[in-house]
Amino acid sequence: MTCIFACNGVKSNPIDIGEIDMAENFQDKINLIYLTLSKGHKKIADFIKTNYEKASFMTAASLGKAVGVSESTVVRFASNIGFEGYPELQKYLQEMVKSHLTSVQRMDVAASRYGDEDFIDRAFSADIEMIKATRDGISREAFIKSAEAINNARKIYILGVRSSAALASFAAFYFRFLYENVVLIDTSAASEVFEQMFRIGSEDVCIAISFPRYSNQTVNALSFAQSRGATIISITDGEFSPIAPYATHLLVAKSNMVSFVDSLTAPLSVINALVAAAAKEKHDDVYNDFKALEEIWDEYHVYRTGEEGKE
Predict the structure, then answer these.
(1) ∠ CA(170), CA(128), CA(52), 5° rounding?
(2) pLDDT the model gives residue 243
(3) Which residues, listed in sequence order, are joined to residue 159 by a DSSP beta bridge?
(4) How many domains does the chain have?
(5) Which residue range forms the structural domain that includes residue 52?
(6) Neighbours of 10 (CB within 10 A)
(7) What's the confidence (pLDDT) of residue 214?
(8) Alpha helices in the chain (DSSP H)
C-alpha cells in the first residue's frame, strides 16, 4: 500500500493515497494530508484554497513564485495530494472554476488571464484547440452507440437549459428532418419539464446537453429519465459534469472560458457529427424526404433564389 509522509523529514502517521483519490473536493484532499505537509507545501495549499480561481490558470513556476517556493516544490505538492502531476491538478482546479465561479468572478479571471490580448485571436485560437481536443478525446464507441440508439428510439427527447438551449434547439431542428418522433423540451418552466417527459420510457432516448454553469433543472430531468429506464446521451465537458453519471453514452466536448461565456463550438461540432452519422443510416429516406421538401420550398418560395430582386 502506497502511503504519504511529511516532507520535512519528520515522520507522521501514514496517509492512504486511496483515501486522497476518493476525496470529493480539493478541501477534503487537503484536510486529509495537511498536517503531514512541509512548510512550503502548506503555503501552496493555503494559497490555492483562498485563490483557486487564479491558481487554476497559473503555471507551476508562477504559482511557486507567488508563494515563495520553487517550481519543483509545486510539482511535488501536486503528487503529494493524489494527482499524477501538476497538469492534472491544474485541470482539476479549472473544472472547479468553470463549475463554481459567478459571472462576475469569471470576468475577473478572464481579465487577469488575457489582459490586453486580441480577443478575436484568443477566441478563435481557443475554439480551434477545443475542437482538436474534442476530436482526439471523444469516445468513438460511445459516439457510434449514440447514433445507433437514436436510430432505434421510439421517441427522441432533446434537453438543454440556458446557454445549452441553443444547442438543443439546433439539434432538434436537424433531427426533425430525419425523424417524426423528436421532442424539444421547453425548459422555460421547471414543472413543465416533467409534464413533457412523463411518458418517457425504456424505448426512448434523451439527448441532454449541459455546460458550465450547470443547471439543476437538467440534472433533475435526467434523474427522472433514468428512473424510467430511458437511454441517456449526455453531451457535456467531462466526467466531472453532474450529468455524466446519468449517461448511458457519454460524449465529451471540451469548452473553454473566454469571459463570462463558454465557447460551445466543440459541442456544436459533436452535434453536427451525430446528426450526420444518424442520417447516413437513413440515407434513402432522407434523400426522398429532402427531394419532396425542396419541391414544397420552391412552390411556396420559402428561400430566396439568386434571381430574386434582379431587374
Answers:
(1) 95
(2) 95
(3) 208
(4) 2
(5) 3-100
(6) 9
(7) 87
(8) 17-22, 26-33, 39-55, 60-67, 71-80, 86-100, 103-114, 119-137, 140-152, 163-178, 190-197, 216-227, 265-281, 283-299
Q: Do 86 and 234 share a domain, yes or no?
A: no
Three-state DSSP at 252 gives strand
Q: Is residue 148 part of a domain?
A: yes
Which residues fall within 8 angstroms of residue 75, CB to CB, at 6 or more apart?
60, 85, 86
pLDDT in tens, 213-254: 788 999 999 999 999 999 999 999 988 789 999 999 999 998
What single string gives the DSSP state of each residue in 49-100?
HHHHHHHTT--HHHHHHHHT--HHHHHHHHHHTT-SSHHHHHHHHHHHHHHH
Looking at the structure, tell me whether residues 175 and 272 fall in a common domain: yes
Report the length, in residues, of the chain.
Answer: 311
151 assigned to some structural domain: yes
Q: Given the C-alpha cell 430566396, which residue does it identify?
A: 304
205 occurs within a structural domain: yes
- At residue 25, does pLDDT exceed 50? yes
Asked if residue 207 is part of any domain, the answer here is yes
**What is the bridge-based pairing of β-strands 182-184 and 15-16?**
unpaired
Query: C-alpha distances in angstroms, 142 versus 159, 168, 249?
Result: 19, 19, 5
| CA atoms lying within 13 Å on the CB side of residue 111 | 6
3-state secondary structure of 14: coil
Cβ-proximal residues to 57 (8 Å cutoff; 6+ apart), any chain:
90, 94, 97, 109, 112, 113
Same domain? For 33 and 83 the reply is: yes
Answer yes or no: do 82 and 173 share one domain: no
pLDDT at 309: 55
Least confident of 98-112, 116-130, 230-244, 296-310: 98-112
What is the three-class DSSP state of 186? coil
Q: CATH number of the domain that 64 lies in?
A: 1.10.10.10
R_g of the chain computed on alpha carbons: 24
Do 144 and 290 share a structural domain? yes
